[in-house]
Amino acid sequence: MPMPTDHVTRVSLSEEAYARIEAAIMDGTLEPGERLRDPDLIAWLGISRTPIRHALDRLAEQGLIEMERNRYTRVAPWDLDGVIDALQVAGDLWAGAAQRGLSRWEADDELLVREIADSLREVAAQHDNRRFVTVLEHLVTSYASIEGNRARLRALASVLPQARRLGRKLRGRLDAAALGEFTSSLLDANRQRDGDRAARLIEAYIARLTTVLRPES
């Protein structure tokens, strides 16, 4: 019996709409406060209204847009406190994945994380803030993926989009030397399968990023 495909198609279109709108928010194409009108989105994305509304609901849950039914849908204002809160929660989840999962890592897991860390140092040296945030997110989620905790991965998926906005505040502030010191120490903790040490290093680096975003904090 052939399986129905309508639902699968809608999900796929919703994912596409989500990815494109979210990317436009992150790169500044869609500015904070900008209205998101259905006809404009349909014309831009070439996708029907229903998948777009599903994507907007998801973006609203993540704090990237604001919605009031029958009144407005708009890009959420830049909220430094919200970004820092999301970054700290993501850091807690990352540290927890290291603390609980690192002792069970295999050699291939360690190699994967080393490659991501190398990429992170490279983009930091190039002062490529946008790619830095993307690769940092990859590093964070790799720990949770290796741990295999689905609840942690779902929690990360809900906070990382808001934390991703930190890239817009890192211009000229990213310290490649500090990042290099952090990743070298973290990789050493990984080699020793020392989850407690890795967690402490992660917490300290997230605190450093928070200070970079808000120097007076």
What would your notes on this structure say?
With 217 residues, the chain is mainly alpha-helical. It has nine helices and two strands, in the order H-H-H-E-E-H-H-H-H-H-H. A two-stranded antiparallel ribbon has the order 1-2. The chain is globular and about 55 Å long.
Mean pLDDT: 88
H-E order:
HHHEEHHHHHH
Instruction: Note the total helix count.
Output: 9
Strand order of the largest sheet: 1-2
Q: Which tags fit this structure?
A:
217 residues; mainly alpha; two-stranded antiparallel ribbon; disordered N terminus
Summarize the structure.
The chain is mainly alpha-helical. It has helices at 6-26, 38-45, 49-61, 80-101, 107-125, 129-147, 150-163, 176-191, 195-213, and strands at residues 65-68, 72-75.
Secondary structure blueprint with pairings:
Elements: H1 6-26, H2 38-45, H3 49-61, E1 65-68, E2 72-75, H4 80-101, H5 107-125, H6 129-147, H7 150-163, H8 176-191, H9 195-213
Antiparallel strand pairs: 1-2
